């Protein structure tokens, strides 16, 4: 009996966490990919159950089905919104499609023979970076589908980011290197050997700051022009899975594998706020790896989306 009581108490502790101010469930059977618009107003879900879809979060309405072929549920492996939130990209392993958020209509589709792992899209959906399994990322002009340059690493490119104007890019690879690129020239601005395997990268809207983090390790913030380190965030033996700079560049919002979201002071690397979502019932897999994070247009309000398609709002 004592052992049983101890077990039950331990499980209850595991389930403890902070309570979000709002919550949305977008799919019951998990998601292959899940992304938030920069203002947190929309979500793209690549559901295991019903393929791709766009959700409006102010009323929790599923607006459009975004599958790549009629009558089929696409297995989407990656998704993202443009830096202004007007367009979105969804990808199967060998193909990616751009969509207009306001109408739900496709705006173009292109092949990606290297196997899509990660994507980023600039303002107006004009330029895209497609991170691939073949150790390269494509810099694409979506106006005509032209590949403007190929960005290379010595490992799979897990994570990418692009500036709002589409001129500066960031790539993070399993080779442990974060690279910042002059995209029109296809040249590295600087590269940093962060460690063994890069888990997430981000770039500020004005392209003055970049961020990169490790699997099971800390992350760093650098100045783009100088490559100078600004601060270090995160903790050893934890993994940052998503990151976004605030519009004023003063804070960085990050998501973790262990159902956590943390707000950091960019200048110092100090923790400003820490949220930990409640775990689901202990006999079900939690699925609570943070897939994306967003600052909303309401002050001191934040949203995150988990790998199981669950969305939380925090204040």
UniProtKB/TrEMBL annotation:
WD repeats: 150-191
SMART domains tied to this protein: WD40
UniProt key word Repeat: yes
Keywords attached to this entry: Repeat, WD repeat
PROSITE patterns, A to Z: PROKAR_LIPOPROTEIN, WD_REPEATS_2, WD_REPEATS_REGION
Protein name, UniProt field: Uncharacterized protein
Organism, scientific name: Ketobacter alkanivorans
Taxonomic placement: Bacteria, Pseudomonadati, Pseudomonadota, Gammaproteobacteria, Pseudomonadales
């Amino acid at each position: 009996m004592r052992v049983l009581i101890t077990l039950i108490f331990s499980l209850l502790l595991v389930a403890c966490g902070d309570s979000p101010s709002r919550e949305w469930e977008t799919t019951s059977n998990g998601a292959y990919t899940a992304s938030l618009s920069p203002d947190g107003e929309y979500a793209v879900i690549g559901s295991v159950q019903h393929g791709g879809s766009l959700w409006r979060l102010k009323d929790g309405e599923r607006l459009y089905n975004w599958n790549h072929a009629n009558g089929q549920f696409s297995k989407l492996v990656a998704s993202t919104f443009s830096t202004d939130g007007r367009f979105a990209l969804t990808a199967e392993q060998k193909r990616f499609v751009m969509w207009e958020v306001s109408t739900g209509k496709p705006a173009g589709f292109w092949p990606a023979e290297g196997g899509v792992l990660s994507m980023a899209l600039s303002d107006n959906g004009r330029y895209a970076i497609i991170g691939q399994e073949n150790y390269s990322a494509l810099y694409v002009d979506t106006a005509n589908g032209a590949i403007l340059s190929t960005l290379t690493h010595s490992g799979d490119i897990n994570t990418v980011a692009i500036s709002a104007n589409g001129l500066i890019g960031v790539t993070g690879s399993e080779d442990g290197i974060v690279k910042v690129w002059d995209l029109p020239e296809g040249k590295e601005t600087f590269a940093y050997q962060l460690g063994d395997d890069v888990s997430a990268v981000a770039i500020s809207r004005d392209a003055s700051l970049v961020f990169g983090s490790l699997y099971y390790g800390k992350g760093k913030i650098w100045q783009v022009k100088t490559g100078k380190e600004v601060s270090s965030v995160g903790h050893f033996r934890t993994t940052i899975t998503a990151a976004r700079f605030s519009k004023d560049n003063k804070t960085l919002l990050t998501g973790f594998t262990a159902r956590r979201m943390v707000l950091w002071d960019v200048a110092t690397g100090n923790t400003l706020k820490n949220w930990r979502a409640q775990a689901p019932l202990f006999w079900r897999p939690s699925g609570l790896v943070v897939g994306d994070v967003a600052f909303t247009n309401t002050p001191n309000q934040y949203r995150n989306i988990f790998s199981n398609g669950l969305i939380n709002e925090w204040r």
